[in-house]
């Protein structure tokens, strides 16, 4: 629920007449992998940092229950300056048996363990709004309090960016939901569910629903499903494989090596950079999914052209004229970055940020066109490349951000 800041300012401003608002060097908005990693690096530099958000909340509450991480274990580490708080370190500390692919629950608990490095710098309070202020920004919290900071780092993730096809825009969540909205799959046992999409989220959601007892059909525009790492022999050539693919495992042969160097990607002309980005993250599923989809009906080269409520569910008409009566539609249609959908950014602030198609235009240090305002994670992917869509990008993002912030904070002091 969006907080009306204008209703709360009276108390905050009155209080500020007697007590100057607290000030910090950097406020990080978001406590997922990017926010936690950046916060730890900033704190290690001796900067006064505050990280806001419930740790790993989106992963714990909005990702498909029972999912497995697509990324390899080596690319699933959060970043700290000394590489002391790795996934392996967490499993050793908790006496947890390592496994691959990595279960979502394990990754969430790992993030919550990692967050303890921040101590009191982590605040679960929701940020209601960020606005420009003298020498930086004023940050308003959900409880009506506010403080000043020199810099703001937006690490708020993809939650507001869910992409829903027009035909499904106006239905209640009990009939149509997105796979990034978090649903208890057990409620779909015995129900007829159509999953829209052909990427990892769609395919894995279909597998999980089928295993929970639902009657599942996948409807996808692509003519056939694609699978990550389908040319296994390319991944079994020792040193040559390491020359062709980075350990991050983002993108196909060759492109995988390029996207491992985001500062190099940033220098590529935008049109070619976009081609590299879309090719690296095209819809595809992990190799371990086909065996879990044996009871799922696949309908490729198709799209839903019409949907209406009927008989307590939905009547769907496909573009070939065929019809379906289903209980629920689950959208595995991904997301579209648009920073104006971050409700905590004041409209005035958003208007000052130079963008291309919703993505902020960024410079070194993840700087936006607004001095002191930085964006990391998926919102930075159009500038720095597709590595920033994945957990593996936390290492580069944290070091690049902190290198810039530390230099310029010292200069300002």
How are the SSEs placed, and which strands pair?
Elements lengths: L8 H10 L4 E7 L3 H12 L4 E4 L4 H5 L25 H8 L9 H11 L7 E2 L3 E7 L2 E6 L4 E9 L21 E3 L13 E5 L3 H12 L3 E5 L19 H6 L10 H5 L2 H4 L4 H11 L16 E3 L4 E7 L2 E6 L4 E4 L1 E4 L15 H6 L2 E2 L2 E2 L12 E3 L5 H4 L9 H19 L1
Parallel strand pairs: 1-2, 1-6, 2-3, 6-17, 7-14, 8-9, 8-14, 9-10
Antiparallel strand pairs: 4-5, 5-6, 11-12, 12-13, 15-16
Helix pairs in contact: 2-13
Short overview:
By secondary structure, the chain is of the alpha/beta class. It has helices spanning 9-18, 33-44, 57-61, 87-94, 104-114, 200-211, 239-244, 255-259, 262-265, 270-280, 347-352, 381-384, 394-412, and strands spanning 23-29, 49-52, 122-123, 127-133, 136-141, 146-154, 176-178, 192-196, 215-219, 297-299, 304-310, 313-318, 323-326, 328-331, 355-356, 359-360, 373-375. It has three domains: 5-161 and 336-412, FAD/NAD(P)-binding domain (3-Layer(bba) Sandwich); 166-226 and 283-331, FAD/NAD(P)-binding domain; 232-280, no CATH class.
Which tags fit this structure?
alpha/beta; FAD/NAD(P)-binding domain; seven-stranded mixed β-sheet; globular; single chain; five-stranded parallel β-sheet; 27% helix; 3 domains; 413 residues
């Amino acid at each position: 629920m969006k907080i009306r800041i204008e209703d709360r300012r009276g108390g905050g401003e009155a209080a500020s007449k007697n007590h100057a608002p607290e000030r910090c060097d950097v406020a990080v908005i978001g406590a997922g992998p990017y926010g936690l990693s950046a916060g730890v690096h900033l704190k290690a530099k001796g900067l006064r940092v505050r990280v806001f958000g419930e740790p790993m909340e989106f992963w714990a509450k909005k990702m498909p229950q029972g999912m497995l991480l697509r990324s390899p274990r080596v690319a699933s580490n959060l970043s700290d300056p000394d590489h002391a708080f790795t996934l392996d370190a967490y499993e050793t500390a908790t006496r947890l048996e390592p496994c691959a692919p990595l279960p979502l629950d394990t990754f969430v608990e790992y993030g919550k363990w990692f967050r303890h490095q921040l101590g009191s710098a982590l605040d679960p309070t929701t940020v209601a709004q960020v606005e420009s202020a003298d020498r930086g920004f004023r940050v308003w919290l959900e409880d009506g309090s506010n403080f000043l900071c020199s810099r703001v780092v937006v690490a708020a993730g993809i939650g507001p960016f869910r992409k829903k096809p027009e035909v499904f825009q106006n239905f209640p969540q009990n009939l149509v939901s997105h796979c990034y909205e978090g649903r208890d799959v057990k409620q779909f046992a015995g129900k007829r569910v159509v999953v829209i999409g052909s990427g990892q989220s769609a395919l894995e959601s279909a597998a999980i629903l089928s295993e929970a007892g639902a009657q599942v059909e996948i409807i996808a525009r692509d003519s056939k499903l694609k699978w990550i790492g389908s040319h296994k022999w390319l991944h079994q050539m020792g040193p040559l494989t390491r020359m062709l693919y980075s350990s991050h495992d983002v993108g196909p042969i060759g492109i995988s090596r390029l996207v491992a160097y985001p500062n190099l990607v940033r220098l590529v002309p935008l049109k070619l950079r976009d081609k590299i980005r879309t090719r690296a993250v095209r819809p595809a599923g992990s190799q371990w999914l086909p065996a879990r989809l044996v009871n799922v009906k696949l309908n490729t080269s198709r799209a839903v052209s019409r949907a209406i409520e009927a008989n307590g569910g939905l009547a769907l008409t496909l573009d070939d004229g065929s019809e379906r009566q289903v209980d629920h539609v689950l959208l595995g249609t991904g997301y579209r970055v648009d920073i104006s959908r971050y409700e905590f950014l004041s409209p005035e602030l958003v208007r000052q940020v130079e963008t291309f198609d919703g993505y902020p235009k960024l410079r070194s240090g993840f700087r936006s066109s607004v001095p002191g305002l930085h964006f990391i994670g998926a919102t930075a992917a159009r500038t720095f490349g597709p590595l920033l869509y994945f957990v593996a990008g936390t290492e580069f993002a944290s070091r690049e951000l902190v290198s810039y912030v530390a230099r310029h904070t010292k200069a300002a002091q």
